[in-house]
Amino acid sequence: MSRFPDTRLRRLRQSRAVRDLVRETSLEPRQLVLPLFVREGVTEPQPIGSMPGVVQHSLDSLRRAVTDAADAGVGGVMLFGVPAVRDAIGSAADDPDGILNVATAAVASEVGDALVVQTDLCLDEFTDHGHCGVLDGDGAVDNDATLERYASMALAQAQAGSQMLGLSGMMDGQVAVVRQALDDEGFTDTLLLAYAAKYASAFYGPFREAVDSQLTGDRRTYQLDPGNRREGVREALFDQDEGADIVMVKPAMAFLDVLREVRDSVEVPVWAYQVSGEYAMIEAAATNGWIDRPAAVLESLLSIRRAGADAVLTYWAAEAARWLR
Length: 325
Ligand code: PBG
Known about the structure:
- The chain is an alpha/beta fold.
- The protein has helices at residues 16-22, 59-72, 99-111, 143-160, 174-184, 205-210, 230-242, 256-265, 276-287, 293-306, 317-324, and strands at 32-39, 46-47, 55-57, 76-82, 116-121, 164-167, 191-198, 246-250, 270-273, 311-313.
- It is globular.
- Ligand PBG is lined by residues 120, 122, 124, 132, 168, 204, 207, 219, 275-276.
């Protein structure tokens, strides 16, 4: 008999102890990954106006932030580089002396196995036009020429000590090409995190400030149309076939339906990226006293886990990890 009054659904909510016992979704520090920005040529961390509490790190402050994240129990860090000089092909990206590779080496030696050191593998921070790939004669993003740059970047990052490469450029074939390049050089243990379903989203706005993006147009010829769910699943299946160890959906909260469907469609772990705009929205509302900050942050992370993410990239990773302990 599953009807009132024989059944009372509120029985399961009567006390904290009962609620704790029947909660379906967990949120643990190890499931959080902290994105970090490191800027070439600065000695002090630089604030990012649209992301209060997030900074462009100096090499020193980056080391401290990574150690702090490890102490908090965070599962990993994802490093983004902000170079001093940019050019058409993003030369600093695969230069061993480029800021991202130097920072990776510094951090990898520091934390060892305490957490997983990951690096963003994309050209947009390094190109003077701000696109994720190199351009052809007509100014369009050249898929196959970009793949050669990604292969070279992958080797530079693996050599620097990155354990996991975050392929965020949305070029066709990027997972297969990078896997092959790594394997050919003996980097068979380097993990590939494929930003499989990455949408052309307005929620990346604050990130563009964070990396001093030079982009003037948009990324709609390579990132997904926000209206398309099936296409997101198709991308994830493609990346799994190409050898991705983990696939990602990004942004998170505006794409929870895609996240759920990808989780139900692939066998590899599925991660989600709670992006800069998602961070900025909650921070802005909290600053105005319109929302309970920790409660809103944890609820947002729980919703992403509930929708199917095995782990979440979030700018609150270290702080949320401390709340959860
Ligand atoms: C591309 C990249 C972007 C983000 C992560 N990797 C920017 C973009 O695609 O425009 C956005 C992350 C965020 O908004 O927090 N290297």
